[in-house]
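We were asked to recover a plausible sequence for a given structure. The inputs and outputs are reproduced exactly as logged, with field labels preserved.

PROBLEM: sequence recovery
POSITIONS: 186
GIVEN STRUCTURE:
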């Protein structure tokens, strides 16, 4: 994911709405003892997502299915979904909205300003909307973002892990991953 050709990702990271959402997430979670939904978390989810797709041999199929021009465009789409997947988290705190659905709506304007096509925006916003419960019928990228979101949690070093409702699920998921669990390539 590093290197030339990821200009649109830099535009996302500098977008005023994106920066505002990251800031609002931080303000809402300043007293939170569990995992936070900050820029580092979103960046890690984008990196893990890319590694899942490339590490399982799913990149070529993803490029074909989504009609992408090649690996750079695919990296931008994957990274955009990871970076934007939690931008609606603050709306869940303030209004009780599902943050995945709110984030999918909000991401559209950020993606447009960053120069993503309508097809790419559909792919990214669908994945964002699916990232909480990527079950049957979810897109490949939605399932990947969901898995990466879970795998990004630092449960082993978290002082609040015994009180976390996700801890047992995430530890089981990590054990499956260490023993050869493989994401279906769609």
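RECOVERED SEQUENCE:
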């Amino acid at each position: 994911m590093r290197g030339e050709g990821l200009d649109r990702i830099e535009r996302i990271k500098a977008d005023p709405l994106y920066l505002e959402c990251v800031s609002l997430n931080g303000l809402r979670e300043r007293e939170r003892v569990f995992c936070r939904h900050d820029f580092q978390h979103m960046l890690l989810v984008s990196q893990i997502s890319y590694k899942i797709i490339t590490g399982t041999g799913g990149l070529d199929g993803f490029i074909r299915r989504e009609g992408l021009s090649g690996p750079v465009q695919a990296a931008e789409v994957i990274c955009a979904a990871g970076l934007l997947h939690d931008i609606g988290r603050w709306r869940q705190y303030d209004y009780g909205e599902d943050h995945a659905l709110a984030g999918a709506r909000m991401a559209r304007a950020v993606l447009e300003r960053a120069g993503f096509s309508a097809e790419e925006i559909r792919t990214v916003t669908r994945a964002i909307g699916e990232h909480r419960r990527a079950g049957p019928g979810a897109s490949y990228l939605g399932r990947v973002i969901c898995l990466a979101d879970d795998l990004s949690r630092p449960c082993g070093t978290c002082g609040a892990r015994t009180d976390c409702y996700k801890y047992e699920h995430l530890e089981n998921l990590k054990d499956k991953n260490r023993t050869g669990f493989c994401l279906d390539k769609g």
